[in-house]
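re: that complex we talked abt at group meeting.

here r the seqs, copy pasted straight from the sheet so there may be weird spacing, ignore it
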Amino acid sequence: MEPHILILGAPGAGKGTQSDRIVSEFGVDHVTTGDALRGNKEMDISHLGLEYDTPGEYMDKGELVPDAVVNEIVETALEEADGYVLDGYPRNLEQAQTLSEMTDLDVVLYLDVDEDVLVDRLTGRRVCEECGATYHVEFSPPEQAGVCDECGGDLYQREDDTEETARERIRVYEENTAPVVEFYDEEGQLVRVDGEGSPDEVWADVSDAVETNA
Ligand code: AP5
Ligand code: MG
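got the structure back, here u go
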């Protein structure tokens, strides 16, 4: 059976960057709530009777989208995946509980990055609108500014990567998601990886951890 990998970390810790490499190396699916929600920002969720009527309104404020919406996205994606790397979920203890009823995990990775590094990574991030490849204007720039090395597509900045929203996302992470990291640590499942090296240095530790534990 293909490995079931969970990757945890604050906004900007490098979950997407390392998940792409895990997909290439281990042949698993990338299940990521952030990308799934960005593709469905205008979805009508008014039937839930909550604060806002679309996922996008929560996302652009840096708030969490309601559990009912994300739980369903993850359940469907995991049913369709053979192995997977799950990125962006669970983000609170309720979601962690729901996940434990859906699937078993072989390895839980935590990318450890200091808060002051995160804002710089987020505000400098650029993403290809065609293929989703991720760049950083300073730390991993494309050969030609604004153009994807992989496919020639245009690069854009995510709407939640302004400094103000990035700081709010980090605050929401500390409040809701840091307890999830503690939960897996107490279960004895957490593999802590230093996320502050270069992408290649982090990958050396991430790939070791997957090979050892999955
Ligand atoms: P989501 O898309 O999941 O965002 P996030 O968790 O804030 O994480 P990011 O994607 O910002 O960071 P990352 O760790 O993937 O970093 P990356 O590799 O790109 O969620 C967005 C929103 O959706 C949420 O705010 C919420 O509203 C909603 N949502 C999603 N899931 C939800 C859930 N389960 N429940 C409720 N709501 C949910 O790297 C960042 C930058 O750093 C890049 O520019 C990259 O090039 C650079 N970089 C990466 N690694 C390195 C390195 N080692 N050294 C230098 N630079 C690096
Ligand atoms: Mg990401």
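couple things i noticed - Residues 132 and 155 are 9 Å apart (CA to CA). The pocket of magnesium ion (ligand 2) is lined by residues 15-16, 34 (CB under 6 Å).
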